[in-house]
Amino acid sequence: MASTHAGPEIRLVVKAELVHARDGGEDWTGVRDSKTRRKLQNRLNVRAHRRRRAAETEALAAATETFTRQILETEPQIPCWNETRQTISTVPLHQIPKPKAPLIPYANPNSPPPPTLELIFPLTPDHLITLTQYNVLRASMTNLRLLGALHTVPRECVLALSVVPAPTTIFETSPMPEMEVPPSLIPTRLQRSVEHDKYINVLPCGVFRDNLIRAKGSYDGLLMRRDILGALWEGFPENENERTDLVVWGEPWDVKGWEVSEGFWRKWGWLLKGCTEVLAATNYWRGVRGEESLVVDI
Q1: For residue 47, what are the contacts with CB-CB under 8 A and spacing of at least 6?
Q2: pLDDT tens digits for 135-180?
Q3: Distance of alpha carbon 147 from alpha carbon 133, whole angstroms
Q4: Mind telling me which Pfam families this protein's record contains (predicted)?
Q5: How far apart are the C-alpha atoms of 279 and 276, rounded to whole Å?
């Protein structure tokens, strides 16, 4: 019987230093001339470097494409009001405008009107209040109307904000009888006897109003007014923790619907002493979001 024994297997392996060589002419391992050898080595090193760069670029592009696709697939779709079409459109989160400039600039007759955005703002579930800051503005104007004090608002501000359909009738509003004013807005004895800034009257907490009146001269009233509606005139902070405003979640005259932002509490907490209703309401809304309660030392 014939032998089937095979001979030893010989494997041919390319030398590691020659993996980027295109042909035998670039094999420098047997070249004795140092100048020629260095020339061949440099050629292979440059080629290796270019191939590594190309591979890294390709891998980065593939990873970026995969990451972007995953983000877009999981990105929430936000309902927004489309001013051009006058309809509600669903927009990816990254396409929603994030205004850092003031949404309602200070009145200046020489300033051109602000450009109109096609997509205005993300809508809240009720599609009525687009931003919590606008809700505070609405609440303030509502409480002024309940107090019969819309005539105290500068006419140019009312016209600029267009908060009512017929601004020419605002200044004919007469004060309502006290019995029609919500109890939370009825002026305190201190309000009746001490001259004070009118913006204080819109706050539905008598203790808070009295604190502001008593502390007159020890705080900057302009800063307080700006902080109540700051984001509308001063622009939105990049960090949510930097907000120093108020939020209204319910009826304007009901203190239970008002919330003090943590930034406002840090800045103006000393003016909230005794304002148990305001703090209770604030901590209720914070609790809904799973946030810790705020405390003011009495």
Answers
A1: 20
A2: 788 788 888 888 887 766 655 455 444 443 333 333 333 444 454 7
A3: 21
A4: DUF3425 (PF11905)
A5: 5
